[in-house]
Design brief:
This protein is α/β, with parallel strands linked by helices. Helix content is 47%, strand content 15%. The chain is built from 17 helices and eleven strands. The strands form two sheets. It has a seven-stranded parallel β-sheet with strand order 4-3-2-1-5-6-7, with helices on both faces. Strand 3, helix 3 and strand 4 form a beta-alpha-beta unit. The chain is globular and about 55 Å long. The relative contact order is 0.11. The mean pLDDT is 97. Bound molecules: nicotinamide-adenine-dinucleotide and magnesium ion (MG).
């Protein structure tokens, strides 16, 4: 029998990371968790090392690495502990690694995702921020180094499943007219502007359909998540802004759709559980069990679709604007959003300050071409400083 595929799971202690290990654990004959990485949840990482016995474990801080190494040694595990951000790039590009799950949250995941693409790996991309910040550079690396890119975001994974294999030749040539990107609408879908101005982090962290990390949960409540996904779809599928339509679909059963010029609309449906796209991307073009229960359409009973309201949810409009501005604009949008989300979670700004901060930072930034990774990193740095300044000047506690 063939050797199991060696998989690096970047961000193994997060929501996507844990779901990835759940799928891997169901198929020990096919997959081996070869390298695991964590930022702060060292205890969870240690438990994962006990269960999966990876060759490498990566933590960011020196102190954490020392104590994790000691515990691993005492337990007699075969795992070597590496430390620091460069180690993330190392485990993403080791020659013996077959596949890399890029599931670190935010801009912090960009360099390691890029390293996996440059090493020509099968890249399972959950970290949408990489494509938002450096879509052109990332896609160039994928093509130049022969990487296989498989989207993990449920919408993009659904779109991928509804596209013909030859879609990279161009959407028009395969008869695709539109991507219909579904969005649950988040917990505040029916809130008035007035109600939105008073929402708390606790309310925003309570997503109706999906269990996810805190950053993407807030992004889902502002609809910035959908905005980032519009930019992600642009790069993954070569779709222009006017070929991507956001559709509010509160049940999150239709994970997205592709519309063709003959009137056909293909959709992928399922229960909202990230193990479906993870299993799909791990096994593609084959299919494997994911642990997800079969969809019960009779229990679902109805599927609703509405237009998004960009008056109440300006983040979606801002993301479309950044996409049209091109260059470093999406990286600026992303950086300002990361700072704003964090400040909202810390109760330093109100919910509706999030779009206002992003609009102000984007409007006052100098947008440059994003030709080198340094252009993106510089734009990200500047936008973070501008966002921090904004909070100092205008932040009003929520
Ligand atoms: P999470 O917060 O649950 O986990 C994040 C992971 O990244 C953790 O393992 C953490 O240790 C690691 N991490 C955080 N900061 C880091 C840093 N500075 N350096 C190195 N590692 C760091 O997040 P999540 O919900 O699993 O999301 C991960 C990514 O997947 C995000 O980009 C998100 O947009 C995307 N995504 C998530 C979901 C979902 O259902 N959770 C769905 C679609 C896409
Ligand atoms: Mg998504």
């Amino acid at each position: 029998m063939a050797e199991p595929h060696k998989v690096t799971v970047l961000g193994s202690t997060g929501s996507i990371g844990v779901s990835t290990l759940d799928v891997i654990a169901r198929h020990p004959d096919r997959y081996q968790a070869y390298a695991l990485t964590a930022n702060s949840r060292h205890e969870v990482l240690y438990e994962q090392c006990v269960q999966f016995k990876p060759r490498y474990a990566v933590v960011l801080d020196e102190q954490g690495a020392v104590s994790l190494s000691e515990k691993i040694k005492t337990a007699g595990l075969p795992t070597e502990v590496l430390t620091g951000a460069p180690a993330l790039e190392k485990v993403a590009s080791l020659p013996e690694v077959d596949a890399v799950m890029a599931a670190i949250v935010g801009a912090a995941g960009m360099r390691s995702a890029l390293a996996a693409a440059r090493a020509g790996k099968r890249v399972l991309l959950a970290n949408k921020e990489t494509l938002v910040m450096a879509g052109h550079l990332f896609m160039e690396a994928v093509h130049k180094h022969g990487a296989t890119l498989l989207p993990i975001d449920s919408e993009h994974n659904a779109i991928f499943q509804c596209m013909p294999a030859s879609f990279p030749q161009g959407l028009a040539s395969v008869g695709v007219t539109k991507i219909l990107l579904t969005a649950s609408g988040g917990p505040f879908r029916n809130f008035t502007q007035e109600q939105l101005s008073h929402v708390t982090p606790e309310q925003a962290l309570n997503h109706p359909n999906w269990v996810m990390g805190p950053k993407i949960t807030i992004d889902s409540a502002t609809l910035m998540n959908k905005g980032l996904e519009v930019i992600e779809a642009h790069w993954l599928f070569g779709a222009e802004a006017n070929q991507i339509e956001v559709v509010i679909h509160p049940q999150s059963v239709v994970h997205s759709m592709v519309q063709y010029n003959d009137g056909s609309v293909l959709a992928e449906l399922g229960n909202p559980d990230m193990r479906t796209p993870i299993a799909h991307a791990l096994a593609w073009p084959e299919r494997i069990l994911s642990g997800v229960a079969p969809l019960d359409l009779f229990a679902t009973a109805r599927l609703d679709f509405q237009r998004p309201d960009t008056q109440r949810f300006p983040c979606l409009r801002l993301a479309f604007e950044a996409l049209k501005l091109e260059g470093t604009a999406p990286a600026i949008l992303n950086a300002a959003n990361e700072i704003a989300v964090n400040a909202f979670l810390q109760k330093e700004i109100a919910f509706m300050d999030i779009p206002q901060l992003i609009e102000d930072v984007l409007g006052n930034s100098c947008i440059q071409p994003a030709e080198r990774i340094e252009d993106v990193v510089d734009a990200d740095d500047l936008a973070r400083s501008a966002a921090q300044e904004w909070i100092k000047r205008k932040g009003a506690p929520c």
